[in-house]
Amino acid sequence: MKLVKLIANLGYGSRKDVAWMFREGRITDADGDVLYADDRVEHARIRIDGEPLDPPPGLVLMMHKPLGVTCSRKDPGRVVYDLLPPRYRVREPALSTVGRLDRDTSGLLLLTDDGALLHRIISPRASVAKVYEATLAEDLRGDEAALFASGTLMLESETTPLAPAALDALGPRHARLTLHEGRYHQVRRMFAATGNRVETLQRVAIGALCLGELAPGAWRVLDAEDVARAFGAPSACRA
Ligand code: URA
Fold it and tell me: DSSP characters for 108-153?
C-alpha cells in the first residue's frame, strides 16, 4: 500500500493532508531521514513529527473503562473513544469495542479493528470467559452459586436459559462471577433474579487476560501473546 494511503487510513488526515505532511518533511524514518510518498519503508521505522506511527491494522487494545463512559460511538456524553487519540476514531478499518460494558460498569474492555477476531471473542461457540466482580446491596442468600451453575436460570423476557456461570463469594456482599456469554445487563439481571441488586460492577478479566494495574481511563496496545491470553482459562487475577 502507498505510504500516503497507509498514513491517511490511520487517521492522520486526508490523503491531501498527508501529501502536505510529506512535502513539509514531517514524515521521516527512524534515523530522521525525510521520506517521500513513493518510498517503501517498514511500518515500524516510520515517524511522524519524530513519533512512531500508530500500529497497523490488526490493532487490539485493552482499556480500563472508567465509570460514566459509554461504549457507543455516537452517545452525546463521554464515550470510550474520547480516551484515545482523536485519530483512532477515524482510522480505517474502524476500531470497535469487543462487546460492551454498561455506562455504570468499569473494567477491562477490548477494542479492535480485526472483525474476525472480534467475532471469535464474542461468539457463543468460543465460550470466552468474562470475569466480573460485583458488590451487592444485600447479603448473598447462599444458593446463588448453585442457581447460576444450573444452566436453568431464565431471565425476564428471554427465551433460553442462561448458560452455567460460576459464582465465588468473596464476602457477604461481594462476589466474583464468571460468564461464558454476554446478554444485555446480564450480571445485574442475574442478581436481580435472586432479589438482590448490584451496587458496583467491574470486569476484571477476559479469559486469562487480567485488568491488572491499568488505571481507570488508561489503555495499552496488546501483542499476540496478550490476545491469546483472552482465549485462555480464567486465572486468579488478584492476589
Ligand atoms: N453485565 C452487566 O450487567 N453489565 C455489564 O456492563 C456487563 C455485564
Answer: EEEEES-HHHHHHHH-TTT---EEEEEEESS---S-HHHHHHTT--
- What is the pLDDT averaged over residues 46-53? 97
- 188 C-alpha to center of ligand 1: Å? 6
State what percent of residues in the chain have pLDDT above 70: 99
Confidence band for 238, pLDDT divided at 50, 70 and 90: low
Residue nearest to atom 3 of ligand 1 (CA): 185
pLDDT at 239 over 60: no
CATH class for the region spanning 3-52? alpha beta
Q: Is the minimum distance from the CB of 101 to ligand 1 under 6 angstroms?
A: yes
Best CATH choice for the domain 55-239 from the list 3.40.50.1370, 1.10.645.10, 3.30.2350.10, 1.10.10.10? 3.30.2350.10
Distance 93 CA to ligand 1 centre (A): 27
Which member of 75, 102, 104, 226 is catalytic?
A: 102
d(CA 69, CA 77): 7
Known catalytic membership, residue 102: yes
7 CA to centre of ligand 1 in angstroms:
36
